[in-house]
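Write out this protein's structure.
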Amino acid sequence: MAAEQSNHAKHRYHHEGDYFAARIRSAGSRNFMEGDFYPFYPFTVEEAHRANRFLFREEFCRFMIVSLVLEGRLMYRHGERKYLLEPGMVLLIPPGTSYSFDTFSTGGYRKLVVEFAGPHLESICTTLGLDRFTMQYVGEPAPLFESIDTMRSLLERRDKEEIPELLAAGYKFLLQLSGNLRSRRRNAPLLAQAQQKLESALDQPLEMKEVAAELGMSLTNLNRIFREELHISPQKYRNTCRVEQARELLWHTDLSIKEIAAKLGYCNQFYFSQEFRRYTDQTPTAFRRECRRPS
């Protein structure tokens, strides 16, 4: 286990797992744009490919972070909410936010991360509606990839004469994210209510048609909203929440597999083990052993 703390007051980060067991391609503006005034600017573009299990937690992040998952699955946490990112999904983390992420299944992950900094970043994010912790499914991410590749190339060249192009590419990227969010925002209140319902009383049976009726919509519309916004069905979303709660209990308690299965409403421990493996690619016993292995 390793832990780090920056020199900045309040800003802290911590990780568990081998931090250096990853293939990382990173380009950044550190020591490149210092001494000049820019309202905001792309700070880092990084591609990380990690095969090992890894947990990272950061408090009061100084940057705006956009994370795009390419392979594998990651479970992010912000406050009491959890966000499972699969390929094609983007997570927006505003500056000043505390969050964590953890590999959700074996096989690791590959993701692209873009960080922004600057004295006017928060006001720009507010203007564009990018000032909230938000997950979205982007479907065809080609336009985002194009902007990311442009920013990465310009950061790698570190040519001060190309800074205007770098700022323009960064602003284009933020506009693309903002446009994706605006097109989906009409579903946000209903989606949030449905998620809250699906995340509660995980030990109790819950019919999706009951959730839809409580929200004043049809089951077809409930399924449509989840498919459009999260690229997942409501039932799979609830199952994922149960598996995530099981991971927490396996990691942080000494409850037996049988006790955890009962606590989460599974009919028996064998069905629980099958479901856990289906979602995480490993058995509950293997997951617990890996969590408690000395780093």
